[in-house]
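User: Sequence for ROK family transcriptional regulator below. Tokens please.
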Amino acid sequence: MASTSRTQADVNRTAVLARLGARGNASRADLARELNLSPALLTQLTRDLLREGLIEELEQSSSNGGRPARLLGLVSRNFTALGVKVAPDHVAMVEVGIDGEVVRSVTRPFEAVSPLATSTLVELVTQFIAEGTGTRVLGVGVGLPGNVAEQGVGIVDSTQLGWNQVPLGEILRRALNLPVVVENNVNALSAAERLYGQGRQHDDVLVVTVGNGVGAGLIAGGVLVRGRAGGAGDLGHVPVREDGPLCQCGNRGCLEAVIGQAALVNDARSIRLIGTAETIDDLRALADAGNAGAAEIFGNAGHVFGRALAGAINLFDPAIVVLLGEGVQAWPHWAPTFERALRSALVPGKRGTPVVVESWQDDRWAQGAAALVLATPFDADGVAGEQGRLVRERMVASAEATA
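Assistant: Structure tokens for ROK family transcriptional regulator:
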């Protein structure tokens, strides 16, 4: 329980910095109200941040007759974090401010299966840093599909990328001379939702992504659940069809082997609805144009997905489900069958669980990875290891240089 309380405080401290960075100076009362924190807790959080030299007390705000409130502000905004999303065929990179907003972004082609993949990744990130804004970079967060036992170590196992025990964290740290944290991409996205998204208002959130794969990030009691080796939330590998199609993990009938984008494209090609050179975008365009066969493929996927997600909701009992990813671009064609299958498979007490579908841009993955860096200065549980301490030192140094 103590560990959970410390981690919750870490998130809240980061949220205070993000709020001050996003909307400027604020009183303690304003911060407590907007972040849904008790005045006593907010006072303790700001006391810690003042002692650490990250925020400062400023002029008093105007009053309507009561005692004027003293405003709080950031000591320095002169630092950013980099986020890198690694996919099998491309890399998306963003630079974000303390408020989590994207300052700049870029996407580059990438071949994860290439023997030179890690060297190419180093070159791409190095170039992105060199083209930067000139602010102080706190560190680099990397999100990718796969298992990462420890963020601060960053050894990667990924069937999607074809990587086995790749020491990505060490490689990037040595080349960039910056703190680097590495995490499963859905976990990283969940961290961003907890800090900046709809998850900010809830302590128990299920973040689910659908696209090339299917993944889930679980926030329980305000804390991201990583599991024994960072592999919690592997929803895409829940078996849904006995003797179903072969999954990239080697098993048959996994959820993502049935409803992932590659599976939907294969289904469409098998009935000659699209050609061998056409993609999920072409299949979606057919459905948008009213093609019944294309709509049926998405509809079948929505049904299977709805039942699988109902199982996860029944198991974890989240206050809200946030659904996003590349696949939501076709959500109008998933939604009718998904909603019916979901609600009918939920137990009565959970049938009202809200499912929020967010719009999607590819740099959201990378923004999630950058959020890992912004959270590490307050990583009391040591998930980021030595990297959290190094990020914090850089943040304090940036503040002192500005003072």
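The radius of gyration is 22 Å.
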